[in-house]
Amino acid sequence: MMPKPAGCAGCVLESVGEGWCGCSGPTNARLLIVGEAPGRSEVAADPPTPMVGATGWEVNSALRGQRDSVRVANVRRCLPPEHEKSRSQVLSTQHCTRTYLHPEMADLSEVRTIVCVGGDALREVVGIGGISKVFGSVWSRAEVEAIRAAARVGEPPLPLPPRLHSVVAAIHPAAAMRGSKWMMPTIKQMIWRGWQWSQREKGPGDRLAGLTVDLQPAPEVVEAALREHSTVAMDVETVGRESKQISILGLATSPSEVMVMDWREPYISIVRPFLEDPTYAVIGHNFAFDMHALWETSGIDVRAQVLDTMNAAALLWPPVPKRKQDETTKEKLQLPWHSLALCVMRVFEGEAYWKEAELPWQQAFYQVAYGERFPAWQWPRLYCAIDALKTFGLMLEERRMMQGD
Prior knowledge:
By secondary structure, this protein is of the alpha/beta class. It folds into two domains: 6-198, Uracil-DNA Glycosylase, subunit E, CATH 3.40.470; 212-334 and 375-403, Nucleotidyltransferase, domain 5 (2-Layer Sandwich), CATH 3.30.420. The protein contains 16 helices and eleven strands. It has helices at residues 40-44, 53-63, 86-105, 119-125, 131-134, 141-151, 173-177, 184-198, 219-228, 267-275, 287-298, 312-316, 327-330, 339-347, 360-369, 379-403, and strands at residues 31-35, 71-74, 113-117, 138-140, 166-170, 212-214, 231-238, 246-254, 257-262, 281-284, 305-308. Strands 6-9-8-7-10-11 form a six-stranded mixed β-sheet, sandwiched between helices. A hairpin with a 2-residue loop joins β8 (246-254) and β9. α2 packs across α8, α6 (141-151) packs antiparallel against α15 (360-369) and α14 packs across α16 (379-403). The longest helix has 25 residues, at 379-403. The protein is elongated. The model is unreliable at 12-17 and 319-336 (pLDDT under 50).
């Protein structure tokens, strides 16, 4: 077992585990993968190496033979003690990051992309938690710097490599191994997405390039667009998770043109006949919930042909009011609510995905990505617009794949 380095003598914990594991891979790598903490396989390797064993096998598989050209590190160097308390975990992670990873970043002059694998890595690199909500996101350097400035006030953030242009958020493979195995293909795809971005000279660009977004359409414009197009993608935003109050409605008439309106008159009366027309077609994502909301709020019985890009939420968490939940399974059932994000991440390359724009770091992202064109009060509408556009795009991609193009 490799002894802990001298720096660990100053660790904030009395015990930091049995072994220690440094970094691996060339310092001139273009991709840096940052994980969480070593396991027993990592500290037992000769030499101790991050992300080997079962996790390493999945990472190597995701990288498709490129592992030797990738720099791999953990935010924490020591094998965590069993039954570690959360505060000790946070303090030890902060200590290791500042003692070892901070100075090392100066030597990674060729890194273009960082893949944050797991919540601890995301917190240390980007400054935020909640990996499940932003899983698969690809941020530009400017967006990351804005998020960090908003989320880590008063803390010394991890230095970013000078040529870094993108950061990717990925759930840790170990999370899939512990029971969410259906997540593994998407996790591996996000790690490979990081490799692909690292081979480019620039990160994500203008997120609205080529899109026509109307967040305040006139009623006559909405009606004319619906009459002109026989198929429309729809996204319904409800208040919280309840289906009894719709706030806004997004309508995409193509993968590049979208309108968003408050759910009120005269828009309700304009949309109703199209939704109740069996000859009309509506593209939806987990649309069973939206259909329920339309019925609950406005008595609209959707009879249009529904082309659903995914129905996981309806299958795993039916939108039935006051459905009794088994608390032991409630957490597992949260996943379908991120199903649009998971689909979008797999099809579209440079997305940064989350629903809310309430927290300071979320507002910071919107300000950098969209703020010059849309004021803050329009951000919820903008989110709905992007959802509707991506739903349309997903349907086109599904058709392309089914036809073998």
